[in-house]
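Consider the tokenized backbone below.
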């Protein structure tokens, strides 16, 4: 609980000039949590700057204060006087936020599992989202909820739980959402902005993606590939590609879905998702990735077909253990 985070809370409260940074390809949870935390810090008079390794995708411009987020490309420390403290939000690895905080005074506020290379801090893998975690920190840091804070944190919770489908077996996310709504959250607006606002080109993307779709292990594993050329030709925001994953998991027999996206570097990013207690994080960790039990990611120096051959024996064991 919050009482276990006393030292980290004190470090935050003692800092006057704070930089906050979220992970690459910023999503509504990382952004919502960062914006919410920044507002808490602003309330107590701290000077804050917000960063992300990539520009904020246009579909997420409905978050209040998104324009505050500056782009700090990987390996490039932002220009300006060094802060008292850097806070990694929705990440605990310097490699996920651009590497530059590694040699600075930094802590993490995150809900992903920590590794030996993680930057310590307030890390709670039993929370369903970073926004849920920041909601718990508002009072602990001496702040108070505002309409903009509630909007951003509710958005992050709704996004990372996929509209409360994944709540880590605990009602915290529901309790937090229920507490945020009375502060002026337009729940219909947030839901529509996150889940019913895809561009028409997404249908073409889906059609082309389905042509690559393959099934393994008697239909329990589905995987497909999105080429760099397809993304460029259609102009679909890369942040929206993950919407292909829940689409695959809608099929009853599919227990694991893997999306492979080709990158400009020639590498592929694998994004596995799963149902029930099937663990896809361990598969991602084998190649230096990570994430959650049901949602993970990893950068690959191999073709999707090679990775599938590697992953299938592990997935077979996981699926059999969860029948």
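A designed sequence for it:
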């Amino acid at each position: 609980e919050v009482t276990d985070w006393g030292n980290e809370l004190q470090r935050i409260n003692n800092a006057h000039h704070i930089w906050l940074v979220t992970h690459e390809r910023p999503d509504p949870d990382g952004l919502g949590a960062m914006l919410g935390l920044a507002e808490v810090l602003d309330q107590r008079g701290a000077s804050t700057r917000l960063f992300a390794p990539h520009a904020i995708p246009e579909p997420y411009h409905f978050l209040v204060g998104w324009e505050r987020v500056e782009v700090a490309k990987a390996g490039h420390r932002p220009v300006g006087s060094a802060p008292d403290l850097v806070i990694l939000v929705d990440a605990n690895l310097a490699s996920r936020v651009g590497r530059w905080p590694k040699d600075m005074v930094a802590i993490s506020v995150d809900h992903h599992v920590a590794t030996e290379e993680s930057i310590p801090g307030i890390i709670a893998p039993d929370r369903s989202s970073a926004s849920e975690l920041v909601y718990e920190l508002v009072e602990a840091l001496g702040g108070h909820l505002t309409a903009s804070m509630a909007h951003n944190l509710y958005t992050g919770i709704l996004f990372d739980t996929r509209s409360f489908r994944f709540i880590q077996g605990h009602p915290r996310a529901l309790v937090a959402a229920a507490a945020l709504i009375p502060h002026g959250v337009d729940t219909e607006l947030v839901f529509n902005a996150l889940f019913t606002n895809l561009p028409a080109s997404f249908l073409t993307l889906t059609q082309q993606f389905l042509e690559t779709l393959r099934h393994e292990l008697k239909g329990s594993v589905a995987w497909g590939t999105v080429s760099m050329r397809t993304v460029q030709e259609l102009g679909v925001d890369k942040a929206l590609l993950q919407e292909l994953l829940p689409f695959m998991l809608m099929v009853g027999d599919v227990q694991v879905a893997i999306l492979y996206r080709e990158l400009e570097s020639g590498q592929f990013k694998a994004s596995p998702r799963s149902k029930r207690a099937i663990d896809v994080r361990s598969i991602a960790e084998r190649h230096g990735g990570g994430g959650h039990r049901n949602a993970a990611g990893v950068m690959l120096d191999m073709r999707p077909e090679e990775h599938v051959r590697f992953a299938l024996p592990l997935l077979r064991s996981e699926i059999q253990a969860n029948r």
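The mean pLDDT is 94.
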